[in-house]
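Action item from last week, closing it out:
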Amino acid sequence: MPLCWPQHGIPVVTEELLDETMLDESIVLPLPPAMRCPQTRARGPTSGARNSSGLLPAQRRKLRADWQLASGVFPDASFERFLYYWLVVNTRSFYFETPNFKTQPSREDRMVMVPFIDLFNHNDSGCEVHFGLSGFTVTSDQAYEAGDELYVSYGPHTRQLTSEATDGFLLENNRWDSIPIQHILMRYLVDTPAEKQLQQASYLGDYTVTRDGACWRTEVAVRALFLTESDWKRFVQGVDIYNAGDKEKADVFIRNHLLEPFLREGEKHREQLQKTVALATSSHQVLLRRWEQIRNLLEQAADSLPVRNGNRTKNEPLSQETEF
């Protein structure tokens, strides 16, 4: 689990380091945005190695709260022993709810342990897992021979985020993969009329890109930067979504101001990780491979987008310029 990865040789999860104020940003590995960035606006600085609204800081806060509760009930328990069982539960549990759930327990606490199902490995296709009042059911997706390995698929909703930040593994090929880009797009939206506009329409945050391009929410947010409010509302309502000029303008912005800066950011992180090859650990290798996956996905997404006054060829390098 990345929460426990040693970062430049320094253990990150100790009882003392549960206090975020004691975590030195200089020791933090270059984490992908899905692990370190919030899905919506971050109040305060939007850059840097650590963000208090990101997923890993949120996991740290949850661990701290759980430890405070457990140590109050079991004062003789050691943090190391508690951490071991906390990790077992948090990496091997499944979401579950019933019609009786209203506001309690909270959504993040609606988790149960399911023996045997937790033995399945994950893939981007495989058996389907469903739950109901009678329990969990695994349904095979095809006929299997004796000795074949069965996988379960979390489906498209995880976007590799669950495997990155919770379990610390990657799929080599994941057709559902997508990359959060709100840490870049929010730089253009913060404290603008567009931000308020998107907030009111429930379109602020959760911006992603796949191999096929930017998600609908990203398209909506980018157009809020240059369309009049009335034209923007027509686009959101699906009345005027085929305006060729607007589409080209949005595509050029996505390519030049979102994908290109992200690619340069990823290159810096890969170089940083490669410099530590002598101290390479499994966590370094996972992060390096993930940044390579991100680069490949962003380049594929950029292939179909226009660059200024024309389309780049498939093998043409991305521009190093980012004029707005």
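Closing note: The beta strands are 93-95, 111-113, 121-132, 135-139, 151-152, 179-180, 208-210, 213-214, 306-307, 310-311.
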